[in-house]
């Protein structure tokens, strides 16, 4: 069994898509281990996205991620990290495969509805960030 972090981003909470996303996750046999509803400060968002320091989209991304409710959750499944990345699809919803979450509900490359840990190393940092 493996654990990963998913965050429902402000564009999705703002469009009342929380239940829909959780339904998709459960149908894909992810078990919900922990979850909370919160709002990030800009500084917290910047700390969470520290790997993107220096990227041109970081200021806009941290503003967006602190603009509304986010719902981080810990999900468990065999091969959870890779399987969740596959389920959410590519960063840009326009390039995300049909049937993926981002293809289905993502708005644009920034407002792409969900975050998911991209590796074991990321999950090991991102899970304690929200669920110390
Ligand atoms: P990921 O979420 O698919 O792992 P990353 O490259 O890690 O994608 O980028 C983190 C987040 O930053 C993306 O989910 C998206 O919200 C935002 N982002 C990434 N690239 C761009 C861009 O080119 N313009 C605007 N926002 C971006
Ligand atoms: Mg990433």
Q: How many beta strands in the DSSP annotation?
A: 4
Overall average residue pLDDT: 98
- Ligand set: inosine-5'-diphosphate, magnesium ion
Q: CATH architecture, please? A: 2-Layer Sandwich
Assembly type of the shown chains?
single chain
Low-confidence spans: pLDDT under 50, at least 5 residues?
Answer: none
Taking all Cα atoms into account, the compactness measure Rg is: 14 Å
Going by CATH, the homologous superfamily would be Nucleoside diphosphate kinase-like domain
Task: Report the principal-axis shape.
Answer: globular
CATH topology, what is it called? Alpha-Beta Plaits
The CATH class label is: Alpha Beta
Number of domains: 1
Question: Can you put this structure into words, describing what you see?
Answer:
There is one protein chain. The protein is α+β, with helices and mostly antiparallel strands. The protein has a single domain (2-131), classed as Alpha-Beta Plaits. The protein has 7 helices and 4 strands; from the N terminus they run βααβααβααβα. A 4-stranded antiparallel beta sheet has the order 2-3-1-4, sandwiched between helices. The longest helix has 11 residues, at 120-130. The model has no long low-confidence stretch (mean pLDDT 98). Bound molecules: inosine-5'-diphosphate and magnesium ion. Residues 57, 61, 91, 109-110, 112, 115, 118 line the site of inosine-5'-diphosphate.
């Amino acid at each position: 069994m493996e654990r990963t972090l998913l965050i429902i981003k402000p564009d999705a909470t703002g469009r009342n898509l929380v239940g829909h996303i959780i339904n998709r996750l459960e149908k894909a046999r992810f078990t919900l281990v922990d979850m909370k509803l919160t709002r990030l400060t800009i500084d917290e968002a910047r700390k969470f996205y520290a790997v993107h320091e220096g990227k041109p989209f970081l200021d806009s991304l941290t503003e967006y991620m602190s603009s509304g409710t986010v719902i981080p959750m810990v999900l468990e499944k065999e091969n959870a990290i890779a399987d969740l990345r596959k389920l959410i699809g590519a960063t840009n919803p326009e390039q995300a495969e049909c049937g993926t979450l981002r293809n289905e509900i993502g708005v644009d490359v920034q407002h792409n509805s969900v975050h998911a840990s991209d590796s074991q190393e990321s999950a090991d940092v991102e899970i304690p960030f929200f669920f110390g």
